[in-house]
Amino acid sequence: MILYFRLLVSSFRFAINALRTNKLRTLLSLLGVTIGIFSIIAVLAAVDSMDRNIKSELSGFDRNMIYVFNHSFGPTEVPKWKVEQFPKMKYEEYDYLKRNLNGVEYISYNLFAQSETMKYENNYVNQISVRPCSSDMQYLDNVKISQGRFFNEAESAKGAPVVIIGFEVAKTLFKNTDPIGKEVRMYGRNFTVIGVIEKQGSINIGGDQDSSAYFPVNLMRQMYGDNSTFMTPVIIVKPLKNVDIKQFEEEIGVKLRLYRGLKIGDDNNFFVNVFGGLLEFVDKIIAQMNVVGWIISGFSLLVGGFGIANIMFVSVKERTHLIGIQKSIGAKNRFILFQFLFEAVILALIGGAIGLLMVFAITKIASALVDFKFVLSFSNALIGLSLSAFIGLISGVLPARSAAKLDPVEAIRTGM
């Protein structure tokens, strides 16, 4: 054990000496490993950060939440031209499901609409995420009120001109003034502010609550009717916890088919999207991104491996005389083999460590510049170092074998 430890220390010294003696040659050789490890770990860190942020942002959503409308969350076998002919969800269908569907905890009729501008006196907020919805949306969207309240079912049914605004909207429009009871203007009419949402932070999927505005969907229907082309109706349903999600999904399909008068053999002209299916779709995309990143970065690692092999062959040639002396005084082939293998691994680890440091620095800089948290996890760093060691090991095998097989007499004579 002590012998191998000394061998490791000796190999480390030889590797450092190679760096010092042939700086340019070693730098160019290690550049491939550095770029390869940097590329792979940068991709893994970016995808991992994206995955963490998405999962964190969606943590408040129930996996069993269901979106019923004329579009699918993921890939579908239904032709695009046929999907475009699907009728939009109607308020009457929402009301029918609300009255006849079993096992419902919350249900809401929403309109996906374009962003809007809100005004209060001389202050404006652009690109507000408007959310015309039913009263149950407070629970479906996990809305947390810091001031005031959410609109109730009676206000939702009659389409009262009330609005709940996000933290950033309230901050921009009202500064230090209490917004509750104030009137804001949107869609050419006045809305009374009855609630302000707690600060949530940026959410990429599901929207940004800090820059949102919730108001009764029936108010929107009164203003624009049910056939507006710039809005997409959707029914959002959350079943009770003890309900079988598959049976619940099938029951929604049966109820809607019955309401729409679809005959046996007719295809559904709507999609029942379970939110958990969206998460699985996101996981598949992230996995594919990882694979593509590995393939692209693999070419850099291949070049880096050739660079390490090249520098090791040169190192063997330069130290032929020394190898001959070591063998002549009793060094075994295994000792020579491990000596050069350790040196190759150490050189590769140096390149990998530089690549990891570059990724770490970039994640810190990027996180400070943009509103997105990039993370270099311990597992990704371990993958980077393991890959570096593996590349060094593979690249050093042939040079180490050639050194170990040298005849001591010929090695000494060649060195002289």
UniProtKB/TrEMBL annotation:
Recorded superkingdom: Bacteria
Keywords: Cell membrane, Membrane, Transmembrane, Transmembrane helix
Residues annotated as domain ABC3 transporter permease C-terminal: 294-408
Record-annotated membrane-spanning stretches: 27-47, 291-314, 335-362, 374-398
GO cellular component: plasma membrane
Residues of the MacB-like periplasmic core domain: 26-252
Single GO term (MF): transmembrane transporter activity
Family named by the database record: Belongs to the ABC-4 integral membrane protein family.
PANTHER family attached to this UniProt entry: ABC TRANSPORTER PERMEASE YTRF (PTHR30572:SF4), MEMBRANE COMPONENT OF TRANSPORTER-RELATED (PTHR30572)
Descriptive protein name: Putative ABC transport system permease protein
